[in-house]
UniProtKB/TrEMBL annotation:
Gene Ontology terms describing biological process: ERAD pathway; protein N-linked glycosylation via asparagine
Protein name: Thioredoxin_13 domain-containing protein
Top-rank taxon: Eukaryota
Coiled-coil features, chain-numbered ranges: none
Domain UGGT thioredoxin-like: 2-164, 240-363
One MF annotation (Gene Ontology) recorded for this entry: UDP-glucose:glycoprotein glucosyltransferase activity
InterPro entries: UDP-g_GGtrans, UGGT_TRXL_1, UGGT_TRXL_2
Leader sequence segment: none
A single cellular component GO annotation: endoplasmic reticulum
């Protein structure tokens, strides 16, 4: 797969322009080319892995190995200790490899050309993918490997590496000291809001539905009254927050909140969940008017009576399930979660190739769950 990706880079990237692209554009091009080989689900996992910097340690290892050799070229090859910067000299260096010295030490994370793994002569190319200097050496080394003259290994390396720190995903804790003195202030005019933001016609988050008013639409229809509409929206929010809900309005609030999230478009579901979790008191009255489908109530009851009891989860506790596999939220490891997602994606892709579509997979999983419950009841009796 890696070498097919290199072929895609050669075909889809102009090597003369690569170094002039910004980091963001290089990232977008790299992901777009990879998506043609990976498909939608695996591309999503690739983006997740890139955001976690999963492969950064390996790239940094290659960078340090490449920096150990004092070279004056943007890409180079090492053939048994001999350094080659010109692709035309690579063939000669391979021919003299037996007289040069021992081959380079290889690691389990190295990218080895598949048709040359067993050859004793080793050619290690250091360079930046997409660049002109790398392309020339790559084509020469690939030709040598195809002719079974040497083993071709590629390592990521950039001659002018920047001093930017590699940002690793993690968690931070902040201690915020709160001032208990409350001050009255008009927050309808938010400090720092630019004129372009106020005049923008783009939809604003949290402006969709407040007491039946869609303020995004109102702002577009009445562009000259945006400030008044913002004040009216703030008034409605404050009134809803201060007005207590009736008992009958609260009893189904959890169902109604779940229904609103489930009914939202897939691309907005997570942002809506975040919004409701952080601003629930402000949105409670609006949520109380949400109608709840019978199917949702039945599913929640089933989860409470069967699924959650099997997992040993009580009311008010949380659980994370990935394709029915329980993940311990108290010891949640994002890297282990990524590996689990990869395994499940590979398994699902195998079913898909056998002709099982998403609807059939859900049916099979439901039947498996029902069979498991029946067997447990039979064993217990």
């Amino acid at each position: 797969m890696f070498w097919k990706y290199l072929d895609a880079i050669i075909e889809g990237v102009n090597a003369d322009e690569w170094n002039s692209f910004s980091d963001a554009k290089q990232h977008d091009i790299a992901v777009r080319l990879a998506s043609r080989l990976l498909g939608q689900s695996r591309t999503a996992l690739l983006k997740f892995a890139l955001s976690l910097r999963v492969h950064s340690p390996i790239v940094q290892l290659f960078q340090q190995l490449g920096a150990e050799n004092a070279v004056n070229c943007d890409a180079y090859a090492v053939v048994h200790g001999e350094i080659v910067c010109d692709a035309e000299d690579l063939e000669r260096a391979v021919g003299n490899a037996s007289e040069s010295g021992p081959p380079s030490t290889l690691y389990s994370v190295d990218h080895v050309y598949p048709k040359s793994r067993l050859h004793e002569i080793t050619v290690v190319v250091y360079g930046e993918l997409g660049s002109k200097s790398w392309l020339n050496l790559h084509l020469a080394a690939e030709r040598i490997a195809r002719n079974n003259k040497a083993k071709y290994v590629f390592r990521h390396w950039c001659r002018e590496a920047r001093d930017d720190k590699v940002l690793l995903s993690g968690y931070g804790v902040e201690l915020a000291i709160k001032n208990t003195e409350y001050k009255a202030m008009d927050d309808s005019n938010i400090p720092g809001k630019t004129q372009s933001e106020e005049d923008s016609d783009a939809d604003i988050r949290d402006y969709d539905d407040i007491n039946g008013f869609n303020f995004n639409i109102l702002r577009k229809l009445h562009g000259d009254s945006k400030e008044s509409l913002d004040q009216f929206r703030l008034h409605l929010l404050e009134r809803d927050e201060l007005t207590p809900l009736k008992v009958w309005q609260v009893q189904d609030l959890s169902y109604q909140a779940s229904q609103r999230i489930v009914s939202a478009p897939p691309e907005k579901a997570l942002s809506l969940l975040t919004e409701m979790s952080q601003n629930f008191p402000l949105l409670a009255r609006s949520i109380s008017r949400q109608s709840v489908k019978k199917e949702l109530r039945a599913e929640v009851q089933t989860n409470l009576e069967i699924t959650l009891s099997e997992l040993g989860i009580g009311e008010g506790e949380s659980a994370l399930l990935i394709n029915g596999i329980s993940v311990d939220v108290d010891q949640l490891d994002v890297f282990a979660t990524l590996e689990l997602l990869k395994q499940e994606q590979k398994l699902t892709e195998g079913f898909y190739r056998l002709g099982f579509k998403s609807a059939r997979l859900v049916t099979c999983y439901t039947m498996f769950q029902a069979t498991s419950r029946t067997m447990k009841k039979f064993v217990s009796h």
